[in-house]
Amino acid sequence: MLVLKYHPRWVRVVVAIIASLFILFYGRPLDLVRSFGSMQFYPVFIVSSLVSFAMVEMTHQFTRWLDRRDPWSYQWQERAILQFTLGVQVPLIFDVFLFSVYFAYYGIDITQNGFFSKDFPLIASFMLLLNAYYAVRFYFAYGTKSRDEILVLENSSAEVTGVDSSDLMRIENNGITINLDLGKDIILFAYINRQLRVYDREGKIYPVKDKLTNLINELEDKGYCQINRSTIVNLEAVKGYKIGAKRNTLELFIVTDLDEIDEDKRPNLTVTGENIDDFKSKFDIR
After folding, report:
1. Domain 171-284 classified CATH 3.40.50?
2. 3-state secondary structure the chain
3. pLDDT tens digits, residue range 71-81?
4. pTM for the complete prediction?
5. Range(s) of the chain covered by CATH 2.40.50
């Protein structure tokens, strides 16, 4: 799963405070002693800083989500539109709304107090710069690498960021090596059409050069359970279950929708009779 690591939250807090101070003092006398010595300054400064941080955090979270959904190197035109919409426009609308309520509380018309002529252009410029930083940061991390190459880099980095190698499964696919976290990335293994396959949380399917019987023994202590002759599921990926259509069976609900997968590759999510007691005991205590 693609999750580029950016600066920690305390850095975003500092950036938000600095941005708030710059906007508050821009075009006004820079008298810090007098300002911080006045009790009237603090409500405005606190509100401004909180809104600024909320906008920074909003952009940060949207960017992380877009990094997973549409990396810049995959379809940059679509990513640019989504980044501008979610990373710039949505926070700006949020800012205008909050300050409209804030000024209205004090009986001030936001359209008449200079907000849109002085403060808003600065805020918009700040948001554009912030989003440009995220784009540049992504470029320096990955350059023009393809989506598959990025996935390899991200998964490979898990081995050097504290993830136990025993919790990773190395997959060779079309000349690319991919490391999948057994606990977080994989939802199930299924033997279909004489081939063992692994299914991840993003709906991707990879062939596995192994036997289902070997995996059953290896993965039992890692939160996996065999539900029928052809399928082993990660219990953390199971949302719930219901009584099956056939007698003495259960049907599972999992975190990833597999309905769009071709029928000949769709795994069997039915818990058969001889596996029901084992599945229920493990699922109920996970």
Report:
1. no
2. CCCCCCCCHHHHHHHHHHHHHHHHHCCCCCCHHHHHCCCCHHHHHHHHHHHHHHHHHHHHHHHHHHHHHCCCCCCHHHHHHHHHHHHHHHHHHHHHHHHHHHHHHCCCCCCCCCHHHHHHHHHHHHHHHHHHHHHHHHHHHHCCCCHHHHHHHHHHHHHHCCCCHHHEEEEEECCEEEEEECCCCEEEEEEECCEEEEEECCCCEEECCCCHHHHHHHHHHHCEEEEECCEEEEHHHEEEEEECCCCCCEEEEECCCCCCCCHHHCCCCEECHHHHHHHHHHHHCC
3. 787 678 898 99
4. 0.52
5. 171-284
